[in-house]
Amino acid sequence: MKNMELKDILYKYKITLEPDVPSILASSNAFAVMDTNNNFVFVNDTFAEIFCFEKSDLLGKPHSQIISENDIISGNYESFWKTLQLGRPLQGEFKRVDKFNRPVWIKGTYIPLTDDNNKIKLILKIIVNISDLVNATKALNFQNESIDQAFSIVHFDRYRNIIHANENFCRLVCYEEEELLGQNHSKLLFEKDMTEEYEKFWRSLKNGVKINGEYRRKNRLGKEIWIRAYYSPVLSYEGKVTKVIKYAQDITKEKTLQNKYASQLKAINTSYAVMELDTQGKITYINENYFKIIKYTADEIVKDHSILVPTNKNKDEEQKLFINSLLLGDYISGEFEMLDSKGDSVWVCGSYNPVLDTNGEVIKIIQYALDVKNHKKRQKEYLESQEIIHANSKMVALGQMSAGLSHEINNPLASIKSLIETAYNIENIDEKNNYLEDISNQTDRIRDIIKNLKDFIKNESSQRKFIDVEIIITEAFKATQDVRKKNNIEVSFKISPMSIYANKTSITQVLINLINNSIYYLKENQSNKYIKIETFKKNGIGFLTFLDSGPGISKKDRDFIFNPFFTTKGPQGTGMGLALSRQYLKQSDGDIKLVHSDKGACFQLTFKIDKDSKDVAWTTMMS
Q1: 3-state DSSP percent of the chain in helix, strand and coil, to 5
Q2: pTM reported for the whole predicted model
Q3: By three-state DSSP, how is residue 317 classified?
């Protein structure tokens, strides 16, 4: 379509404009003219630019070219044109689209133009592009909605009366908005908070001063709530405060937690010595309790933690390793020797605690400690007294042992002397040989007494390891097999397999000793002679129960059976078997004790066991 001048188009359609219209159009930013078929017959340059078209792209084309498809389908657009064709002008804000189908918001005036016969021939459209304003308004509304959702908001007039409260604020203080409107801000305060400071607070707001901080308030139930709030005065064009808007966040839980931590820290600072170090091992804080321990004043204290550490040739290297370990996040606790201002040793018991930031990096180290100098002194005195008691006990035990040894050896020596004197006067060779054999037996007995004493004194700490308890039981009963069968003794086992920590030879000898004791006391004419063995685990400890059907141990002997040289066998016993058994077991972190039994002797042995070994099914053996 040919681009005609506006005056030519008006002339063509026989339209005469009011005298002031040309000046209005001349001052208009953008305008266009459409015929009654809704086709563009004229557009100015500004109009075309708003919609990213060339003027030639619009002329002769329908107005719907700048209408979105959704608006056309909705029927609103058709109704819009029917109104104009009835000769009614329209004015308002309208959404249109540009050449690339992007939204364009305009403020437009649509004026029907009539000819000399008052018949509508053209539609004049005058527009202002308000897209930036609409988008900014939308962004502002979205921002306000976000703020309204994120904050508890309340508006006050300049006299502190509530004129608006959003849903979040009402929920925070447990009121409906209608209950708050017109109420004074002081309704939300505790009486003790209505101070001169509070009056000063509002005077500052009325003078236009913005204020923020953390405040205590009261809800409808009279309960304490804490808010972090920003009070913003709103000014008129004349610069006078017309109202105050408060943006608040509920920090009640946070404040309660802070108060709890503050109370805990106060208690810690009251009860403990506290020191803080930076990542270089420099002292950044010491509380009063720590100053009392190290006898420094705040002015005297040096900043390097190492000055409090006793001197040795590896001090620098050890201090470096100590700090590096803490920087790795390791928690270190124990008793620590330190030096006071006079260079004297002081002892503290406590812990060094790395403090991490949100990235897991150590930012400082805090030591909590107690003064244990007096405790260390008492501990030293106690250990010294125990050493004296232990030494005295050794001397007493040595005296008792010597007396017992003298008694045990004197018996066979006296017998040997008597046998020698008798044999000396006997001429019969066979009879003399019998006496010589008796002398040899008594000599063997002396040898056994001395050997047992050596074993008792000797500490067999070597060759201890974890070994299957079933192997030890098997070897012990195999070693005594002939004498058991000869005496018709039945043996039964109920074995829960486990690995015990022991010297194999020593523990096997313990079982052999128990078996031999049982055989000795099981009478030849006794019926139902038996030995029973049971093993089991409980609370990480291994147990072995040894039971026989003999006469048991009398009450008067039970407190002495583990003493060296105590025996109930008369001349045939050395009195070292059970004493050695207990020593062997204690050397392997175990023990043996006599257990009460209605019939027979019952001993219970305990062992350190391999806790990583798996539980397996019971094994039952009979022989």
Answers
A1: 45, 30, 30
A2: 0.46
A3: helix
